[in-house]
Write a structure and sequence with these properties.
The chain is mostly helical and 311 residues long. The protein has two domains: 2-105, DNA polymerase, domain 1, CATH 1.10.150; 121-297, Orthogonal Bundle (hpI Integrase, Chain A). The chain has 13 helices and two strands. It has helices at 2-15, 20-40, 52-64, 75-94, 121-128, 136-151, 155-159, 189-201, 227-240, 249-262, 267-274, 279-282, 284-300, and strands at 172-176, 182-186. It has a two-stranded antiparallel sheet. A hairpin with a 5-residue loop joins strand 1 (172-176) and strand 2 (182-186). Helix 6 crosses helix 10 and helix 10 (249-262) crosses helix 13. The termini are far apart. 26% of the residues are buried.
Length: 311
């Protein structure tokens, strides 16, 4: 079983161009499934022996599984396991010509409407002003927050940036996103200003755009700030200014997209700026902005307000 999984993961990395993080997630899901099979159905030692009943029992297992915090896995997380399994079986069926369980026979778990949390412009402003920019640490954090909101970058895309990639003169640069999809992102004047302030203050010759300050969070061997450190940075400042929900780098990505949609940007343009391969992924923001418009309608449109029933 492990041999086929390794071949599948290599296929995702080389043929499909998936990012290391995505490949690692697929590996985690599949190896957990294999370990569960070993513990419960040791006779299933080959992919062709997997049946619909095995998948059903695995889904029951996932529904009762708890994470490190003692909480049940979210429905969307459970769905990712099943999506991974379906993708693996399809690879074996199509690329390896194996007689495996048809992935089309495996139904995906039903998931409620995706909820997208985003910040209002006032909340974004509070967050951006939170770092103490009199210090190098504060300048770095302000530049990170500004760049996340200005570009809609994923945190994985942010942390791999190098200094020579970002042109403050042109106010744009290229990134390679999920699935090897290339796109151009643009910098606001504010993001350019704070990036410039941060880089001017640095005295090192390190290649990464954002580096860890010694003794102040995790960094890689080359000094590069890790994705986890950026998540902690965003969370710390969000708590500092008492924002009403948990804020992550992805919340700033949502806020970037929502701000564009509310201002009337074309959904195809937003899709390109976010690096989504499918328009369906971007369409979640139309639901968000529809709700926003509904609130505007209820607030300002006279006939939507409660009046006496006409006689």
């Amino acid at each position: 079983m492990e041999s086929y999984i390794r071949q599948f993961l290599e296929h995702l990395e080389i043929e499909k161009g998936y990012s290391p993080g995505t490949v690692e997630a697929y590996a985690t899901h599949l190896y957990r499934f294999v370990q569960w099979l070993r513990d419960n159905f040791p006779e299933v030692d080959h992919p062709e022996k997997i049946t619909l009943e095995h998948v059903h029992q695995f889904r029951l297992y996932l529904s009762h599984l708890k994470n490190s915090e003692g909480k049940h896995l979210k429905k969307v997380t459970q769905a990712y396991y099943i999506i991974t399994l379906r993708t693996f079986l399809r690879y074996l069926m199509v690329n390896r010509q194996m007689q495996v369980l048809s992935p089309d026979r495996i139904d995906l778990p039903k998931i409620g409407e995706r909820i997208v949390n985003f910040l209002t412009l006032d909340q974004v402003e509070l967050l951006l002003r939170a770092p103490d920019t009199s210090t190098l640490l504060g300048l770095r954090d302000r530049a990170i927050l500004e760049l996340l909101f200005s570009t809609g970058l994923r945190v994985s895309e942010l942390v791999i940036l190098n200094r020579d990639q970002v042109s403050l003169e042109r106010k744009e640069f290229g990134v390679i996103g999920k699935g090897g999809k290339a796109r151009v992102v643009f910098l606001s004047d504010s993001a350019c200003f704070w990036l410039s302030q941060y880089l001017d203050k640095r005295t090192d010759n390190l290649k990464p755009l954002f580096i860890g300050i010694p003794g102040k969070g995790r960094r890689s061997r080359d000094g590069r700030l890790t994705a986890r450190s950026v998540e902690l940075i965003v969370d710390r400042y969000a708590r500092q200014v008492n924002l009403p929900f948990n804020v992550t780098p992805h919340t700033l990505r949502h806020s970037f997209a929502t701000d564009l949609m509310i201002a009337g940007a074309d959904i195809r343009a937003v899709q390109e700026m976010l690096g989504h391969s499918s328009i369906r992924t971007t369409q979640v923001y139309t639901h968000v902005t529809d709700r926003q418009l509904k609130e505007v309608y209820r607030t300002y449109h006279g006939r939507s307000k409660k009046r006496e029933t006409p006689k």
